[in-house]
Amino acid sequence: MKLFVSSSPHLRSKKTTTGVMLDVVIALMPALVMAVVYFGFQALLLAFICVATCVLTEYICRKVMKRKNTITDLSAVVTGLLLALNLPVGINPFIAVFGCVVAIVVVKQMFGGIGYNFVNPALAARVVLMVSFPTAMTTWTNTRFMEADAVTSATTVDAVTSATPLAAGEGAYSYLDLFLGNIGGSMGEVCTLAILLGGLYLVIRRVISPIIPVVYLGTAAIMSLILGLDPLYQLMSGGIMLGAVFMATDYVTSPITKWGKVIFGVGLGVLTMLIRTYSNLPEGVSFAILLMNILVPHIETLTKPRAFGESRKKGDKV
Fold it and tell me: How far is CA 173 from the centre of its chain?
């Protein structure tokens, strides 16, 4: 009989990185499908450009760095798809390509590749694009159904722009439109129903724990009440649903302890609503998640369980 000597922990699982990433891709499909329904095949083209750029960039980067290639683990596909869903559908493709390169080269590969990045690559790239191209990143295209109502003359137009629910203010859109996605915004964040379906799939597959999304959204709802806002409108507006389900739950950049997840979720909810309410930024989700990503090592240190026989005072034994 062969004996294997290795350091702890000795847990074994049939899950692989590729399998987990494939589940995430599957979970993102409802959001992508609804983006195509509402914005047309331009949404599918943008998603393809982002995914292809991320995969190609990672392949070239690993070759240049003389490291084992990792494009088969599908993490680059997930990064490209997430970034695409966080962009306005009418954005210049070259801006999207620039964001993909930032996500893969600067945020991911320069820190060692998958498992070593300290912030979410897609969100970090989105923030870089928001700072670098603010007009392009905040110019939203109406859905095709909104355009049918908005364009009543015979004048030919390429697109009709509109305000997002957050920019338009509470009451500008019905709850039904917010839930189904007939609103302006980044192409993957508009349909709450599609995001919830993807999140449910990930929970059933045990890819993510529901703790962070539930605590994040619950805290945001409570903060909305405290700030005199409509909680339901706030939860179905902007990127909070997409961020809570797909980016706040990232394995690498979120806590692994139960209480760490709770603290992380509370921090996300508080920061998101404070940024939304008091800053000049159009949205607070990306910045809130990035700020909490930076605090994750400290949160895990604070919430790590004590080893058996160790007292609460560091170094003392019971």
Answer: 23
pTM: 0.86
Cβ(79)–Cβ(54) below 8 Å: yes
CA distance from start to end of the chain:
39
Contact 234/283 with Cβ under 8 angstroms? no
pLDDT at 276 over 60: yes
What DSSP letter does each residue of 84-146 carry, written as one string?
HHTS-TTS-HHHHHHHHHIIIIIIIGGGTSTTT-SS-HHHHHHHHHHHH-HHHHT-EEPPHHH
For the chain, domain boundaries? 17-144+164-302
Instruction: State how far the Cα of 242 lies from the Cα of 289, in Å rounded to an integer.
Output: 12
Q: Name every residue whose Cβ is closer than 8 Å to that of residue 49 and which is 6 or more positions away in sequence.
A: 84, 93, 96, 97
pLDDT of residue 200: 96
Q: Cβ distance 145 to 217 under 8 Å?
A: no
Neighbours of 303 (CB within 10 A): 17
Domain topology for 17-144+164-302? Ammonium transporter fold (1.10.3430)
Q: Which residue has the tokens 């399998």?
A: 19
pLDDT value of residue 117: 86
How much of the chain is in helix, strand and coil states, percent to nearest 5?
Answer: 60, 0, 35
User: Do 64 and 57 contact (CB within 8 A), yes or no?
Assistant: no
Is residue 125 within 8 A of residue 103, CB to CB? The reply is: yes
- CA–CA separation, 233 vs 165, rounded Å? 8
